[in-house]
Amino acid sequence: MSAPISNVRPPPDDVLAKIADYVTGAPPEGAEAFDTARYCLMDSIACALMALKYPECTKLLGPLVPGATLEEGARVIGMKDELDPMRSAFNNGALIRWLDFNDTWLAAEWGHPSDNLGGILAVADWMSRSGRKVTGHDILTAAIRAHEIQGVLALNNSFNRAGMDHVILVRIATTAVVTAMLGGTRQQVINAVSNAWADGGALRVYRHAPNTGSRKSWAAGDATSRGVWHAFNALRNEMGYPGALTTTVWGFQDSLFRNKEITLARPLGSYVMENVLFKISFPAEFHAQTAVECAFKLHPQVKDRLDEIERIEMTTHESAIRIIDKTGPLHNPADRDHCLQYMAAIGLIFGQLTADHYEDKVAADPRIDALRAKMVVAEDKRYSTEYLDPDKRSIANAIQIFFKGGAHTEKVEVEYPVGHRRRRKEGIPLLVQKFQAALAEQFDPAKCWQIMNVFDNAERLEKAKAEELMGLVVAS
Q: pTM for the whole thing?
């Protein structure tokens, strides 16, 4: 006869409690974190504005049901819509993520912490327009916290190895910070975050060959909007599930995470925002960023000798091989921007890489697949080790080209991409240029000046009301 099941509710799982303590406790401090968060906000808005030119993205936006708008609701970057906060979160999140051009974080689990701004901006705008005091400083504080929750959870917990997509961490982080933004108590945060874990994890099937598709570009919008849903439910005192992670058999760890423990690798502070990686120069899956930089450096030597190339040796790290080393046909832009060889080929042929290079018109260029067929990809164990080293977190790649007849280029190696913390001095001016260029595509010069006058001044931005900041970057 089996023992009866105990129905005594456990205390909240340690991870739930620590996340709740973090978002309801003393706010993060430190000039570097807030300065980086301001650039993160600028970069994310730039990504969203650039995505507006792609119909495959914009067809998903606006109200879910035609006419389902909300007067004085939450607005959407670059658009005129006023929506409920959950739908606005999806719109903002999908725009920020669409081009694979927003910031990223690489660890045991990779991801894009600025995806959380979809929910943060929507809720901040709605709260501010509803008469509650929410400032730019509050937005940056929420961004720092969301980055930290997502990034620290990613350090030791590899969800992709369990078949799950990294947007699970967007859902967890958005849920926590938005519940706190709305005034939720510690218990309400625990309730909300436990429900976010209870949702389980989305399959990664849409990120990998042979099924790579456009869902990978809106999955984060879906996740951040789901976080907003859980937050609002928690404020209605919807119950939580304190053992959502650790309960035997039915908890997340046993049922979905292959009996492994979910841990926080370090205390929650501002580490992730300070060390986040920006995609500044071109949209590309981040494990390939340095490979594309190598290709750019080699472009002058090979652009007139493409037919003479016999072999292209690419040296990379294990994570790149696992997710973006592809042969065979590439079926759509989402497939191409997650192919190491395609991105490197574009860099070698054109000396640049833009979102348009992933479209069908460019992909039809026979030179691209001809170069892909000549590429040999191998792992450098040092690259793989230093990729996970917390003091380095390099994302190294190298390329060497061999021509018919025996000639060859030097081996070009780039260990840290321009968006890395070690290259901030070089990268931030380029990030500002990216922001300015994106503004110029959508707004007239006077409006661009008005936006820069606020966003390029830390004190001005932090003091501004959230509704004023969003009002600057929506369509008039």
A: 0.90
